[in-house]
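Case study 2.
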Amino acid sequence: MRHFLTILAHEIRALLFNPSTYVAAVLFLGVMGFIFAGILNNYSTHPQEQQPAQQFFQYFIIPVYFMVPLLTMRSLAEERRLGTLETLLTTPVTTTEVVLGKFGAAYLLYLLLWASTGGFHYILHHYSRDARLLEWGPLVGGYTFIAVSGLLFVAIGILASALTRSQAVAGILSFTALFALTAGVYFLGNTPLLQQEGFASVRTTVENLQTFTHLEDFSHGVIDTRQVFFYLTGSVLALIFSILGVEAKLLQG
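Prediction:
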């Protein structure tokens, strides 16, 4: 892994020079700023039971659907299309170092974009001078969930990019997988079939995989090690399949 940091630095520079990075950043901050303004507008007109931070993180999946594909779709697909990945792997760099370097760069940028939304809460607290609008518990829990779940989301994007030479196809694959993992599992858990007594064990398993339930637990300060284990093992598996996918494609030429 001695070349990992070199590849990571190179990938961070590549992301900073990539127009899709700035498209993702502008879309992300625009969407989240619009959502935060809407939440504050509701607070000014109607009494709310939840703090602004709790409501803010409930919309986390909206930017994830477009931000993760935009940050990851180029990583391996474009390298394979241009043939530079094969050239890179003729050097003493391993496939594992390449995949982990690209994953690390995308994940760090993912965290940076989310960290920038902390400015929304700071501005609210600075101008309102109302401590009731800024509770640290939901903020810390929400950002911790973003960091933990982001490992799996970004790894899925890297896997999608490892399976094709087309950035567009990689983006669509990434979006589809993220949608199935989040909204798909949520709707599956609420289907009438799984509400029957004979499917109780399946329903419990599906409920344990629901991302929105994980977010609610984190926001209330409940850190379930099973949920953390799910995201960690899921991201490791996605990265392993990414490495195997790249090597299989190289063998096929």
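The two ends are 25 Å apart (CA to CA).
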